[in-house]
Amino acid sequence: MNRAATGTYRITSTAGEQVRAFVPLPLPPSPSLEITGAQQLLLERATLAVGRLDSISTLLPDPQLFLYSYVRREAVLSSQIEGTQSSLSDLLLFEMEEAPGTPLEDVVEVSNYIAALEHGMARLREGFPLSNRLLREMHAALMAKGRGGDKQPGEFRRSQNWIGGTRPGNARFVPPPPEDVESCMGELERFLHSETNGLPVLLRAALAHVQFETIHPFLDGNGRLGRLLIALLLHHGGLLAEPLLYLSLFFKENRPAYYDLLDRVRSTGDWEAWVDFFLEGVEQTARGAVQTARRLVDLFEADTRRIQKTGRAAANALRVLAALRQRPALTLKHLRDVHGMTFPTASKAMQALLSAGIVRELTGQRRNRVFVYDAYLAVLNEGGQPL
Question: Which end of the chain is more exposed for a tag (fewer CB within 10 A), N or C?
Fold first, then answer.
């Protein structure tokens, strides 16, 4: 449905030239979203898929194990969209204070993403409202270290930014002037808290994501924080107990359509086309997460059976396998310090897993070796190759 532009243009000067900056109208759209029968069916399917994902605890013996690795997978994917070259293996090495195989700044960005998500979820669980203050706090965590530390962490921007192009004059899109950011974000916060618009949580998340990306309220990190906002909204709205739904892979695999639909909303008001795309992404992503969880359960059970057949060495090998389910990359020192195994016992048990083809050594060194649960990492890495 075309409504004409969903905002107004303001002429502003930046970097020595005049540009047309876009100031979005407040949400919800006017006229209201037009939900056809087909869209209602799509909404029901997406909601059902999210419900199945929320019940993932019935599939996994310890859902926190899945959450630990799945959040890190998302952090890698979301950061790759912004141009980092980090892999999940790089992140796990970094967290063990080992040298990653890509530039350190790339991995620091991914680590910051996890810190921002964990901060946001912790604040929501303690009853703090989903608000601009919380988004600023998360932005401060997102930009705390590495690149972006000089981009006003935790503060709405006080200068003009732009998207695409080499300068404002040839940019693909110019967000609102800095003097309009506070009011635009205030309107977005009011929409998030409104109980009168009657929109289902998924539709509120779909609209809020576009509005946040359109305002682009920070000098850097808007894409990553805008994607995190979706996960926070689904948790805050009661659809997910844990932050398990992330659309970064879907957006990464459909980048041209994603950016085109954002532009169409701004220029023609076609929210419905964007909502279709968003709901398809939610359904596809939620189903994929459930399938991933099931594959991991099957993998853990199959490898446990393989180890149980090895005889006397099985007990300690199973202890190491359990540790690798918690963290798919670890060292013998970690087994000693965290799991209370002696170095000879841990070494012998790890050798049994190496011989069985369950683990692989990453460093090629004789000392300070790092072992990865190969098949587990392979499942998590699907779609995780840098752009």
Answer: C
